[in-house]
Amino acid sequence: MKLVLIGYMGSGKSSVGKALASELGYTFLDLDAHIESVERKSISKIFDEKGEIYFRKKENRVLRELMSSEGNIVMATGGGTPCYGNSMEFLMDQEETVIIYLKASLNFLTDRLFLERLNRPLIAHINNKTNMMDFIRKHLFERSFYYNKASLKVDVENTSVDKLVNEIKSNLL
Ligand code: S3P
User: What is the CA(173)–ligand 1 centre distance, in A?
Assistant: First the structure.
């Protein structure tokens, strides 16, 4: 079984993914961390030195490699992963794969990402909250088309990582 977590930056894909994998005894794979290790550079450096198009191509390639892993996995993707190339179609075509959308509101994402923006190249330059909210509103609107194709959607607000893990588990039965 392969469980793939998608959702906007700051929605908790990595922390929920780790906890879910440990609860189920699956292997946890973090797509961004794998890209960083293949490139031997941080995501910020890749954007800076090679640009976003290079990153998106690499992201699509590493996604395919990780999805061909043997055994049970939980994978945390990057916020843009399903929205470029044919990545969402590719994921939806995989056998024994459940795509899970971690859903969060504009206010929640704005508050969280404003504090955590510095190592995220797409938003690191946004230095006031109103502009951050405007950026996320537009971006989320464009990306929701892809995120909403997930077969399972869970709301990440007003809950905890443990509760989210239980909610996902009970929906998988
Ligand atoms: C991106 C999200 C990031 C990372 C890159 C681009 C995006 O991952 O892949 O900075 O396009 O939303 P997180 O969602 O883990 O922050």
Answer: 30
* d(C-alpha 77, C-alpha 7), whole Å: 8
- Domains of the chain in sequence order: 2-162 (3.40.50.300)
Tell me how far the alpha carbon of residue 42 is from its chain's centroid. Answer: 16
| Cα atoms found within 13 Å of the Cα of residue 88, Cβ hemisphere only | 18
The C-alpha torsion from 15 through 20 and 21 to 23, rounded to 10°, is: 130
Model confidence pLDDT, tens digit, residues 25-53? 999 999 999 999 999 999 999 999 999 99
pTM: 0.97
pLDDT at 171: 96
What number does the ligand 1 atom closest to the CA of 9 have? 14
Ligand 1 — pocket residues by CB below 6 A? 9, 13, 32, 43, 78-80, 120-122
